[in-house]
Amino acid sequence: MNSPFFIRDLGTQLTEHEKFELFHFILGCVDSIARSPEVMTNRSSFVPFGNFMFCSDDGAICIDDISAIVRMLHLTFASGSPSLCIDDHLEYESYVEKINLQFLNRSEEELCESNTYEAGVTFASQSISSGHEHMVTPVKDCLKTARRIGRTPNLQSARLAICLSKFAPLRAQIEWYKASCDKSDDQLGYYDSFKLRGPSKRDFKVVMNTIKLGEFWDSVIGMLENNQLPHDFHKRAKWVYASQSYKLLVEPLDIAEYYKNGDHRKNGHYLKGGRHTRYTIFDKWWQERERDRFGDTDGYSRRSKFASLTQDSCFWAKVEEAREWLENVRSERDPRRFAGLWAGIEKFENYAKGLVERKEVSIDVLARNSSYMVWVEELRVLKLHFQQFSNQIPGALDRKVVP
Question: Most exposed residue of 24, 132, 224, 283, measured as fewest CB within 10 angstroms of its CB?
């Protein structure tokens, strides 16, 4: 909005006639939609999204209801003028600063008076209609249509807590499945047992549980994005820890399913082409929580035993990439590509060793036949092979990165 090459000088760059045409073109679009609400169901038409803030010198209102937004746009455009409309857009920052100061300077009595719904609507309509008395009633009617129907954010949050408890048995069944995999005689561990599973009722039930849990958490994120939950919901300890625990338990199964189905061949490795948005969102929730608690310092105490769940939920995705690097490095003849592959292998090797030494992995990682332990053994053999070859032909591998 404040580009020095365009917007700042928009008032002088456009002629009065061009301003008039631009303004009335936009007004015509908004007017047609405001008069025909059914048009908003057509995806090819203009449909606002997100939160819209309508400002004036006396205050502001924030609306997320589509119908109310369109009506408010129509009312503000219909009562404005081409020049004033452009000026108002350029003054957005100053309007926001004024609104913050006005809110902070309001007396306790004023805050109490505006705490009811009717008082709030009246105050907002008078603020946004300042200088246009004929707009007070239409704006007030518009705001009433935007009234949130259903539970308040706090009640919705309380309802979700009850729903979360109802999903606890599904989580418990997955935890039982993990425990049985860890104790299995085949020594595959949690991740590989699920990845190599056959058609069994037990495995099918785990798949259905992961789908149901994913749908629940997607609905939580959707409600938060639609302002149906408290603004600080994602910072509340109960939900941060619940989402983190869900991620650590279920994401390894999603990774196993991704590679079992061969999706990595079509979309690339999991971290680039397969990770669900919910997990990246939960990562942010957790990181923000940890920063608030510990700042930039490491707040973790040293573990005395292995974690119940591997603390990097993407660990197995990194193992899968490292397995491909190890496979490719065996046949790579280009020195530069060889060096790049080997650098990636060493980086992951050091990272995984660190997790194991700090006991931030679950015991399934160290199962004798797990993908990780198989990779470790293959790497050891490859290093030994390189070392023997280097001893037999001194200098033969000087151009490559050899351990």
Answer: 24
Q: Which two tokens stand for residue 26?
A: 């936009």
| CA–CA separation, 313 and 181 (whole Å) | 18
* Positions of the chain with pLDDT lower than 50, given as ranges: 1, 7-8, 39, 44, 108-109, 111-117, 393-403
Q: Name which of 24, 36, 27 is nearest 67 in CA terms.
A: 36
Q: Which of 217, 361, 247 is nearest to 313 (CA)?
A: 247
pLDDT of residue 147: 59
Neighbours of 40 (CB within 10 A): 17
Whole-number pLDDT of residue 380 = 93
Two structure tokens written together for 20: 């008039």
Report the C-alpha gap between 200 and 208 in whole angstroms: 13
Return the beta strands (E) in 256-401 as ranges.
none
The secondary structure of the chain in percent helix, strand, coil, rounded to multiples of 5, reads 70, 0, 30
Coil, strand or helix at 62: strand
**Cα separation, 215 vs 342, whole angstroms:** 40
Classify the C-alpha dihedral 289-294-297-302 as positive or negative.
negative
CA gap 261, 263 in Å, rounded? 6
Rounded Cα distance between 239 and 229, Å, is 12
- pLDDT tens digit string along 338-371? 999 999 999 999 999 999 999 999 999 999 999 9
Helix (H/G/I), strand (E/B), else coil: 65: coil
- Give me the residues paired with residue 56 across strands: 59
Query: If you search the block for the tokens 């591998």, which residue do you land on?
Result: 397
In 295-333, which residue ranges form alpha helices assigned H by DSSP?
Answer: 315-331
DSSP states of 362-374 as a string?
A: -GGGG-TTSHHHH
Cβ atoms 235, 292 nearer than 8 A? yes
Half-sphere exposure of 112 (CA within 13 A, CB side): 3
Say if CB 190 and CB 178 are below 8 A apart: yes
C-alpha span between 6 and 13 (Å, rounded): 8
Element (H, E) at 207: helix 201-225
